[in-house]
UniProtKB/TrEMBL annotation:
Active site: 107, 111
EC nos: 2.4.1.207
Source taxonomy: Eukaryota, Viridiplantae, Streptophyta, Embryophyta, Tracheophyta
Gene Ontology cellular-component annotations: apoplast
Protein name from the UniProt record: Xyloglucan endotransglucosylase/hydrolase
UniProt KW keywords: Apoplast, Cell wall, Cell wall biogenesis/degradation, Disulfide bond, Glycosidase, Hydrolase, Secreted, Signal, Transferase
Gene3D superfamilies in UniProt: 2.60.120.200
Compartmental location: Secreted, Cell wall; Secreted, Extracellular space, Apoplast
Signal peptide location: 1-27
Length: 290
């Protein structure tokens, strides 16, 4: 049997491979959980493993659990490694996100929507600015996210927000303040959680959590933080746009040619919902989509 890839696929896999090599060269990211994070809820559903280099959140009918960064940040290249709950995880949501906790909040979301065993887990992303969200884009993944750890990253600088899966850019939210689209500008904390979302998460809420499979367990690694720390109420966020932070460097202002190709490829093949093309929810194309 012959295995033929077209040039887009070759580039896509080359970037995947390069991403893997970059990760290896960065070395093991083995900062202790307690350095940058603390548990925010469900204390008795959190387990520290590998001397604090790994954390397990579990969820049963009593509770889920969550943790958050001690500090807020005004820019950064944030990352975590996650291994999702295995087997039947319908209704179970695993989340990794940045949020400002303000009345009109900014938020950048990765939400993994569990599913019945053998059915694919959906990765939902969302962007809130000044309290306004409704910007869901959903993806299937090109690997089984329950089988092993994978890296999920959010780049946030003055120019764009980029969501990455294993170093593949899957979503970009550009700074389009020049055409009147608001852009995240509030200090945000990093959070992660495991919780029951069976009112909406799987088949629009029709497929419920099967509690006979509890406890559900999600594993997290990679607790060092590449971010510009800032006071929650700081008005001095401009300090975080300084070129002293590597993620503000010109090379992170837009994707290079190969990343751009991988981005297009991944969206073409794996994106299965895009608010930008949902005319029933957004009769006019939202300006941030143009
Ligand atoms: C964890 O961090 C939050 C947010 O900063 C804070 O409110 C809480 O007191 C901290 N908890 C512990 C146990 O340090
Ligand atoms: C958006 O971009 C403009 C320049 O085009 C810049 O002045 C502004 O600080 C950016 N906004 C944010 C919130 O990063
Ligand atoms: C829940 O899981 C149990 C054990 O696997 C199974 O017997 C039962 O049919 C499942 N319930 C639903 C609604 O799928």
């Amino acid at each position: 049997m012959k295995f033929i890839m077209n040039s887009c696929q070759v580039i896509f896999f080359a970037v995947v491979l390069l991403g893997g090599i970059l990760h290896l060269s960065r070395g093991r990211d083995d900062v202790n959980f307690d350095i940058n994070y603390n548990i925010t809820w469900g204390n008795d559903h959190v387990l520290s493993l590998d001397q604090g280099r790994e954390v397990q959140l579990s969820m049963d009918i009593q509770s889920g659990a969550g943790f958050g960064s001690k500090l807020s940040y005004g820019s950064g290249f944030f990352h975590i490694r996650i291994k999702l709950p295995e087997k039947d995880s319908a209704g179970v949501v695993t989340a990794y996100y940045l949020t400002s906790h303000t009345n009109y909040h900014d938020e950048l979301d990765f939400e993994f929507l569990g599913n019945r065993e053998g059915k694919p887990i959906t990765l939902q992303t969302n962007v809130f600015v000044d309290g306004l969200g409704n910007r869901e884009q959903r993806f299937l993944l090109w690997f089984d996210p329950t089988a092993d750890f994978h890296t999920y990253e959010i780049l946030w600088n003055q120019h764009h927000v980029v969501f990455y899966v294993d170093d593949i850019p899957i979503r970009i939210f550009k700074n389009k303040t020049n055409i009147g689209v608001n852009y995240p500008s509030q200090p945000m904390q990093i959070e992660a959680s495991l919780w029951n979302g069976d009112s909406w998460a799987t088949d629009g809420g029709q497929t419920k959590t099967n509690w006979s499979h509890a406890p559900f367990k999600a594993h997290f690694q990679g607790f060092n933080v590449g971010g510009c720390p800032l006071d929650q109420n700081s008005i001095n966020i401009h300090r975080c746009y300084s070129s002293n932070y590597w993620w503000n460097d010109r090379k992170f202002w837009k994707l290079d040619k190969n990343q751009q190709k991988a981005y297009q490829q991944v969206r073409q093949k794996y994106m299965n919902y895009d608010y930008c093309s949902d005319r029933s929810r957004h009769p006019n194309i939202p300006p941030d989509c143009v």
